[in-house]
Write a structure and sequence with these properties.
Layout (H helix, E strand, L loop, with lengths): L1 H14 L10 H8 L6 H25 L3 H19 L2 H13 L3 H12 L1
Helix pairs in contact: 1-3, 2-3, 3-4, 4-5, 5-6
Length: 117
């Protein structure tokens, strides 16, 4: 529920052109959605589902953003989630390059770093 509220705030801010840092850090997201459980496998499954839900919601945000800066920002964040939490570097690189093409400097730097690995 908290994720949906955060995403609603994000959609509102991006659609109004504000670039406030409203994405929750992934670790906080993990704790918000998947409270510590005794079974580590259950926690991992919950977090994996929540990461993909967050990616899906971020894609919706990116599609609804009105300016290139907001779209670049969303693509960079989606790329970071794919690279760091999902471990899918090829998909992350696609999002970084898209952010770079929209003028996102972080996206360009992350794409170059990932390609150099």
């Amino acid at each position: 529920m908290k994720l949906l509220l955060n995403t609603a705030v994000l959609v509102c801010l991006l659609s109004n052109g504000s670039m406030a840092e409203v994405f929750s850090p992934v670790e906080q997201l993990k704790l918000d959605i998947c409270p510590k459980q005794k079974d580590p496998e259950a926690s991992a499954r919950c977090f994996k589902r929540s990461v993909f839900d967050f990616i899906a919601l971020s894609v919706i945000v990116e599609k609804s953003a009105k300016d290139d800066e907001a779209k670049a920002y969303a693509n960079t964040k989606i790329g970071l989630i794919y690279e760091v939490d999902v471990g899918d570097k090829a998909t992350a690189l696609t999002y970084y390059k898209k952010a770079c093409s929209l003028g996102g400097q972080k996206g360009c730097l992350l794409a170059k770093a990932l390609e150099a690995q």
